[in-house]
Amino acid sequence: MERYDLIVAGAGPAGLSAAIEAAKRGLRVIVFDENEKPGGQLFKQIHKFFGSKEDKAKIRGFKIGKDLLEEANKCGVEVVLNAIVIGLYLDKEVTVKIGDGIQHFKGDTLIVATGASENMVTFDGWTLPGVIGAGAAQTMMNLHHLKPGNRILMLGSGNVGLVVSFQLMQAGCEVVALVDAAPKVGGYGVHASKIARCGVPFYLSHTIIKAEGEQFVNGVIIGEVDSSWEMISGTQKHFDVDTICLAVGLSPMSQLLKMAGCHMKDTPGGYIPECDEKGATSVPGIFVAGDVSGIEEASSAMIEGRISGIAAAEYLGFIDKEELKKSIEKQEKALISLREGMFAPENRGRSIKKTEEGIDVSINLLKKGYIEETEIERFPGFTKCKGVHPVIECTQNIPCNPCQEACVKKCIKIGEKITSLPAIDETKECIGCGMCVASCSGQAIFLVNEEYEQGYAAITLPYEFLPLPEVGSQGKALDRSGKEICAAKIIDVKTKKAFDYTHLITMKVPADMSRKARFFVNSRRCEDE
Amino acid sequence: MSKLKERMSGIGEFMSQPDDQLIICRCEEITKGEIRKAVHDGMFTMTEIRRYLRTGMGLCQGLTCASMVKRIVARELLISSMELEPAVSRAPMRPVEMKIFGNEEKEVK
Amino acid sequence: MGNCADVVIIGSGIIGNSTAYYLAKQGCSVIVLEKSNHIGNGGSSRNGGGVRQSGRDIRELPLAMYGVKNLWPTLSEELEMDVEYYQEGNLRLGKTDEHINILQGLTDKAVSSGLDVQMIDGFRAKEICPYLSDEVIGASWCPTDGHANPMLATLAYYRKARQLGVRFITGEDAVEIRKIRGKARQVVTSKTIYEGETIILAAGYDSRKIASTTGIDIPMTQAALEVLVTEAQAPMFYQMLGTAKADFYGHQSTHGSFVFGGSSGYEDMNKDNGMPVTTSITASCICRGIMKYFPCLEDVKIVRVWAGWIDVCVDHVPVISKVEEVPGLILACAFSGHGFGIAPTVGTLLSQLVVGEETVLDISELRYDRFRAKI
Questions:
Q1: Which chains touch A (3 or more CB pairs under 8 A)?
Q2: Which of B22, B91, B109 sits opposite A86 (nearest CB)?
Q3: By the CB < 8 Å criterion, does A213 face chain C?
Q4: How many Å apart are CA A150 and CA A143, to the nearest integer?
Q5: Are B63 and A253 within 8 A, CB to CB?
Q6: What are the tens digits of pLDDT across the range A233-266?
């Protein structure tokens, strides 16, 4: 019987991070993952992560996955892919389906980091082909390079719904609407703004009434609900779609832990094992990390993974209690800072009226997905300067600070507390390099020069679509709500390795549009509509 | 006595609803109406519902329908969803062909 | 709601539920107490569903034959719920001469008890079930055996009994049966006390612990068996299957899934964590056993494996009897892994014992005080 110091089920951010920390401390570690690529959810995340440098902010998810795997290999961790842990038995034994047979392994410790699966909601027609989970759509696009459909309605305004909507558009799909029964957007405002300015309409306080079609989806009807979730008559709206994506939450896949006899608790967020702050469950030697112990983000998963890997090392005597305390303290501090801000677990469900700085939040952002022009002036990322200067439309307290690091001239300030809103230091001189624009994972930074030319302003914005517009092309500028507001001409297109595939396009617009124009579409596209 | 345990509990008569035809357990094609009716037949726990109707016994082993079934049963019992036990978990975590299951590597690889 | 009734039954498995039903039909008031939170959570929901007469000890064979003749064929109709009863016969398969000898022995015993069992060769076996491996050289064949769905049958009895006014209470753990003035009258649970003219103890393995509070011992142990369930397949065959050396047993259900039970050889010693748990080796062992006889099933997917205990009486037949030393107490337990097929009969018999009718069958061989030392 193969006996390892540590067996990890799941090679996602939590599992690999756990394996690395344990292996670094001398444990013999093996990781099993049912997928053909490691990295769990990371391998299909093509967007840049938020957070601080330690949290791999600014780096695209799949690259974080690759880096983790490299580090794991360097530490001597065995990672076995296409290996499904099908059972977790007494005596901490697992059976794993590998190839065309079953193999038995035993671990002195086990870390279960099996992540979560997508929730479903029911409505008339939900079983028709064409109704898929947002995560499934993401896998299709980013892993298998398949368009899930052409005209898509997204249900769910949490980060998954918002991020996948953007990726659907990057893949060439049209997102005809984003719908949520809740009265306000659940995910980050910047993710919502990214898709609102491309013209995706938001329908909060709406649910799906029916998916139409005989053999597959060919249409959908939504309707508005009141505060008691009752349908308001006369509010039905119809869309021609071939796909309905459901981004209605995740549930931990904690089945292995239940099977092992861990004490479990049923929570609104799913069925999870009882565990302490080190991830130790009620069965000695079995730990958990990541989404399987409660849904959060990949950044938290990595930290939880590290903590449980270190805890397993201490449990087996590879490190002493002193080192455990020191190492965990550092990780826990990072975890706490990730769990701060407007989207902190304790703020879930609460209606936040002001930012930490005392500024009134944008109500329109939460209802329609974009900030009103009149609201933008309240925030410290907005200034009126001469010449080119950054305008930062990041209006919520989330733990994130790549913009601060990006500016060589130190124009952008966040400070010690990384949930603070970024502020522009007007005494510093902006050189218009565009690093901040490319570094903002929320694509919420623009360079504006109100005096580019007599009567014209120049606006540099982040652009992650193909094909890139060409210098000289004429088109239309869209405002934050996706409405066409004026003619625009592309005067510069910048692609640099340091921008990591966030291209910068600069458009010339009438000067009085400088506070409104935030997206560009080619004339060709306008003609099609 | 807790409603769940006294099986003669008054939970009202079964009244059909307009969405009773909605399929809830896709794998086994069980409808909302069937689930609601089962509660009135005396099935007060998720385990009994599962054995009575086969919800959660299909290929996905309840990954898709479990929480939806729970909500429907809880509503019919006039209790909160948290008062019902969640789904069971059984090996194998994913369906495995018999010949693979029987092909146990006896020696260390 | 008072805690008194004509009959208090401990255990809501198929024995308890069928008895409750037959008693309610006779007009008795009944309370059924179930320790767990679920009706029928013990062996009744964890068995292979065999409704067989062949292979039974002569002492319980009449119960099986009675049920197959009088009760099972109309049970679905009577309970107004389909319990998926099939009477398509039982094939016990053999591949070697040793197997054939074992099967011949079982067949001879059955014939001498008046049961229609015959030995057939490999060709005839394949005529009955074309999916068999070519390596099968013979089988014992009992055309009147069959199978049903134990979960549905248990819940069907529960549903009908409940409709007839039987009061079921779950989460009620019976800890003691108490005599009042020389007669067993009270069932003490961790919460309260129930009272009845008659008390029926049908609580599976726990019956031993509860019976001991009246000074009665039922010599039984537990063994852990496992069952695998496959994904649904197109209808292939509906015979009940088994093998000479008990590699596996099972059938194809109405749903289309195959339900196959078996063990690793360590069933008497398997650990658990309070509930029956599957082991890491049993399912693979059962698969290999199945594929030896049904190679055509090798690509069929197993969707789950579950475990259950059988309550094995020292002489492998149940205790179904009044207890004269404890007037008012009736025992119905230790079914040793074959209680399901005789459950309707047992329910009928128990209801007759309660109301004082002469039982349709003689069950004196199954008395509680039959156990003797070896010398």
A1: B, C
A2: B91
A3: no
A4: 18
A5: yes
A6: 999 999 999 999 999 999 999 999 999 999 999 9
Chain A interface disruption, residue of B45, B89, B109, most A CBs within 10 A: B89
Distance of alpha carbon C193 from alpha carbon C176, whole angstroms: 10
Q: Is the Cα dihedral A479, A480, A482, A488 positive or negative?
A: positive
Chain A residue numbers touching B89 (CB-CB < 8 A): 254-256, 258-259
Please name the residues in contact with A489: beta carbons below 8 A apart, sequence gap of 6 or more: A472, A473, A474, A475, A507, A508
Q: Pick from A102, A120, A253: which is nearest to B68 by CB?
A: A120
Are the beta carbons of A504 and A460 closer than 8 angstroms?
yes
Domain that holds residue C12: 4-49+151-219+315-366
pLDDT value at position A278? 94
Query: Residue A125 half-sphere exposure, CB side, CA atoms within 13 Å?
Result: 20
Encode pLDDT of C202-259 as tens digits: 999 999 999 999 999 999 999 989 999 999 999 999 999 999 988 899 999 999 999 9
In the numeric block, the tokens 């490299």 are attached to: A70
Three-class SS of residue A9? strand
Q: Are A273 and A264 in contact (CB under 8 A)?
A: yes
pLDDT of residue C195: 97
Same domain, C337 and C273: no
CA B98-B99-B100 angle, 5° bins: 90
The answer on C233 and C171 residing in a single domain is no
Length of chain A measured in residues: 529
Give the separation between CA A207 and CA C1, rounded to whole angstroms.
45
Long-range contacts of A446-452 (CB under 8 A, 24+ apart): A446/A390, A446/A391, A446/A393, A446/A518, A447/A388, A447/A389, A447/A390, A447/A391, A447/A506, A448/A388, A448/A389, A448/A390, A448/A391, A448/A514, A449/A387, A449/A388, A449/A389, A450/A384, A450/A511, A450/A514, A451/A386, A451/A387, A451/A511, A452/A508
Q: What is the pLDDT of residue B109?
A: 46
Q: What is the ipTM of this complex?
A: 0.93
Do strands A243-246 and A151-155 pair parallel, antiparallel, or not at all (unpaired)?
A: parallel
DSSP state of A210: E
- CA–CA gap between residue A304 and residue A293 (Å, rounded): 10
How many domains does one find in chain C?
Answer: 2
CB A156 within 8 A of CB A126: no
- Report CB contact under 8 Å: C284, A93: no
Rounded CA separation C29/C20 (Å): 9
For the ranges A141-145, A149-153, C105-109, C268-272, the one whose mean pLDDT is highest: A149-153
Statement: residue B2 has pLDDT above 70: no
The residues of chain A scoring below 70 in pLDDT are: 524-529
Q: How far apart are alpha carbons C24 and C22 in whole angstroms? A: 5
Q: Is residue C119 located within the same domain as residue C235? A: yes
Length of chain B: 109
Answer yes or no: do B101 and C302 touch at CB < 8 A.
yes
C125 & C247 share domain: yes
Classified as helix, coil or strand, A222 is strand
Among C273, C295, C313, give the residue marking a domain's end. Answer: C313
Q: What is the 3-state secondary structure (H, E, C) of A367-423?
A: HHCCCCHHHHCCCCCCCCCCCCEEEECCCCCCCCCHHHHHCCCCCEECCCCCCCCCE
Q: Which of C278, C293, C313 is the last residue of a domain?
A: C313
